[in-house]
């Protein structure tokens, strides 16, 4: 989560560097993750560092990606980033499938908080994982169809991804609208308790919200303030907000921006930050040049594209170029955002007519 919030997007390189820094705390890792971190520390590329392991190490860390890329138009990007993140440490297709099941679940739940339907959810997730593991696909279908007759011991609670991920989903589906019941079921079933419970809590928390977490659990959390700050930053990122750059020092230099070549999502995100820096310094022409470069990146998320459009429209609007501002705004798919800013433009120049929406 720290990597996402500090970089502003998923970055294989940044996440890999953090893995290396965590290596001294290797007792917190599974064996596959530990071995992959050693590979990274010895200079292996992230594409070559992963271990052929079917553990749950990739799935346990993937939930924040599901939130960040939860827009329906970002499904392809969610798949790509989930696979890339997984392969840094785990290359077994079953492990990748498990990570997709969790990130896909989060994305689905964000979009379907109202009117959640178990069968629709199961269909979505099984389609997502089928390319990488037919065994996981079949197990998830079986769990959904036999939810009230299953004994948790049948599913398994170990760190093996074909047990751990299905078990977390089972605990969630048993009490989808009751966070406490789902979490306690995972917690009291033994096995890889911490990971299974954390994945269950991610799913149930996404559907039910922060207010449904027992207050006594929140108050007893170790590192609570740091966690709440991370959550706040991730939420701001999800809402396409740029944090206060002078407080968080998130601006990037031109050199850092130009270094990024093979990661369009990261490139576009950094374009927004660099453009904001030029705006702060009064260099509006350079700001627009960089923002246009970001918008020309292929395969970027809808959220990042929207944010760049808003920054660009704001730049044109503040320079009195209302026509160009409206043209940029008209390319944004979110009609609500368009209306809000179009109204502000029209307040300034009453001769402008509302565009057809």
Your description of this structure?
By secondary structure, this protein is mostly helical. Helix content is 68%, strand content 0%. The protein has 2 domains: 51-238, Orthogonal Bundle (ADP-ribosylglycohydrolase fold), CATH 1.10.4080.10; 245-348, Serine Threonine Protein Phosphatase 5, Tetratricopeptide repeat. It has helices at residues 2-7, 12-22, 31-41, 46-49, 57-60, 63-68, 75-89, 93-111, 118-129, 134-145, 152-155, 161-174, 179-187, 193-208, 215-219, 224-238, 245-248, 254-259, 264-280, 284-295, 302-318, 322-329, 335-348. The chain is built from 23 helices and no strands.
Strand content: under 5%
CATH architecture descriptor name of the largest domain: Orthogonal Bundle
Helical residues, percent? 55-70%
Alpha-carbon Rg, integer = 22 Å
Task: Describe this structure in a few short sentences.
The chain is built from 23 helices and no strands.
Give a topology summary.
Elements: H1 2-7, H2 12-22, H3 31-41, H4 46-49, H5 57-60, H6 63-68, H7 75-89, H8 93-111, H9 118-129, H10 134-145, H11 152-155, H12 161-174, H13 179-187, H14 193-208, H15 215-219, H16 224-238, H17 245-248, H18 254-259, H19 264-280, H20 284-295, H21 302-318, H22 322-329, H23 335-348
Helix pairs in contact: 2-3, 7-8, 8-9, 8-12, 8-14, 9-10, 10-12, 12-13, 12-14, 13-14, 19-20, 19-21, 20-21, 21-22, 22-23
